[in-house]
Amino acid sequence: MRLAIVIMAAGKGTRLKSKRPKVLHKIGGKALVEHVIHAATQIVPPQDVYVVVGHQAGAVQAAVTGTGVHFVTQSEQRGTGHAVQTARQAVAAYEHIIVLSGDVPLLQPETIARLRDFHLAERAAMSILTACPSDPHGYGRVIRRAPGAAEVAAIVEQKALTPEQKTIPEINSGIYAFATTTLFQLINELRTDNAHGEYYLTDMADVLVQEGQRVVAIEAESSTEVLGANTLAEMADLDAAMRLTTARKLMAQGVTIYRPETTVIDAGVRVGPDTIIEPFVQLLGETHIGEDCHIRSYSVIENSTIENHVLIQNHCVIDNAHIRSSAQLGPYARLRPGSDIGEEAHIGNFVETKKMRIGKGSKANHLSYLGDAEIGSGVNIGAGTITCNYDGVNKHRTLIEDKVFVGSDTTLVAPIVIGEGSYIAAGSCITEDVPPDALALGRARQTTKPDWARSHRSKR
Ligand code: UD1
Ligand code: CA
User: Fold this and answer.
1) CA distances from 42 to 11, 48, 121, 127 (A)
2) Contact, 376 vs 394, CB < 8 A?
3) Which stretches does the entry tag as region N-acetyltransferase (predicted)?
């Protein structure tokens, strides 16, 4: 049996009041359409997935190129029925199609498979996935032939509901399976005599029933899974639902999350057992955290790897960095892309790092900028140390070898090499390489004038 999946993603999303197309809005760190494509490609290979694009088609396509799916262009968005009509050429050769909505992002592959199996077992022309959410307002309602029957008579859109129909709890999820030949034989019967003047795919239920075709419905096991995102408020609800699912999955794997409703954890995040995540932490992108770590409140970690036994104090910002085992960061550390923090190293408050490596057990505990630097192990970077890496035109590297002691308030003018075991006196501006085991001083000699202050005061 040949099966294709059509994803309707051409709409503007007028109700969002946004310049960005609806399906590119993100929940759980990924665009709506990415979630839907991900679920679809668990059921059929990407070359059997057809995404209908229209409003800002280029942007939508660009966001999901590389997934291997096909695109169909619906230049004018004349409704969901018209979206499927547009895909006719592309999918006519498949026996059956499953139609998904690009704005129903929580849908799980198991549910698509259940709809497919039900559709085939029922030998139906159209099978509708339904749900009974706590608030059905805004959705189309499914009118069954008789209470409890699999057969459907019609789908009625919210705006066309009679007062009596408004009490029907069962909604249309916007997800369907169709027998392709029958669908395309009758799809031209759709009319636009409705509130929006559009071709409604939902009207196919009535069209098919009128022609004596079998239309059936199956209720999803979870009504949350089929919730649609038409407004930014609904988007926030789905985002919260998705993140809570991610947090619960991590908790089931032994991760302690004190207040999961306050954390923002993307689906690609992995965390090892016995790690503790405090309230208001954000773990984004492909962040991987090991075992026995402690991530304190208000830290934001993106696309970074954190090994085991790492302590991240409050308010750290970590982006594309690698933190090795038993290191300690923060509070208020800022690790920019390319930072590699060695085992047992300490990066303290108001220390900024970028494109740098610091070795095992080294410490930069206070108020520093360390960029384009290679720092060995057992190094002490005094408070206020700055690598002057930029001359206004080019960036230059600083190399600090093992066991160097850099006194406080030192400026290291790159390119520069500080040899192993050497000392830099506090307050130095170092412009020349320092050999191993030397002491370098680069500051004005102190002048002290005895009794100056006393005589100064007596002049008042
Ligand atoms: C639709 C259903 C409604 C159902 C709800 C479930 C219709 C007429 N109504 O309503 O019964 O309860 O979904 O979420 O289908 N799209 C296109 N081309 C178009 C129009 C829409 O590709 O010309 C896409 C949109 O981008 C969107 C999807 O189709 O991803 C659904 O469209 P939307 O306007 O959100 O339909 P609803 O009003 O939510
Ligand atoms: Ca919708």
Assistant:
1) 24, 11, 21, 20
2) no
3) 254-460
Q: Rounded to an integer, what distance in angstroms lies between the CA atom of residue 119 and that of residue 407?
A: 74
In a domain, residue 88? The reply is yes
159 and 275 co-located in one domain: no
Strands (E), 170-211: 171-179
Please tell me the pTM assigned to this model.
0.89
Ligand 1 atom with minimal separation from the 104 CA: 14
Q: Count the domains in the chain.
A: 2
Contact 37, 49 (CB under 8 A): yes
Measure the CA–CA gap between 385 and 366, rounded to whole angstroms. Answer: 9
For the CA of 82, the closest atom of ligand 1 is 23
**Ligand in nearest proximity to the CA of 171:** 1
Note the pLDDT of residue 28: 92
pLDDT digits (tens, 9 = 90+) for 381-405: 999 999 999 999 999 999 999 999 9
**Is ligand 1 within 6 A of the CB of residue 33?**
no
Domain range for 271 is 232-440
Q: What is the CATH number of the domain that holds 257?
A: 2.160.10.10
Read off the tokens for 42: 């668990």
For residues 348-354, average pLDDT: 98
Active-site annotation, residues = 366
Query: Cβ neighbours of residue 361 under 8 Å, at least 6 residues apart?
Result: 342, 343, 344, 345, 377, 378
For the cut 90, the answer to whether the pLDDT of residue 338 exceeds it is: yes
pLDDT of 1 > 90? The answer is no
358: CA distance to ligand 1 center in Å?
A: 53
CATH number at residue 117: 3.90.550.10
| Residue nearest ligand 1's atom 31 by CA | 101
74 lines ligand 1 (CB under 6 A): yes
Q: Is the shortest distance between the CB of 157 and ligand 1 below 6 Å? A: yes
Residues 325 and 355 in one domain: yes
Cα separation, 399 vs 227, in Å, equals 55
Question: Residue 188 has what pLDDT?
Answer: 97
Mean pLDDT value across the chain: 97
Looking at the structure, tell me whether residues 156 and 36 fall in a common domain. yes
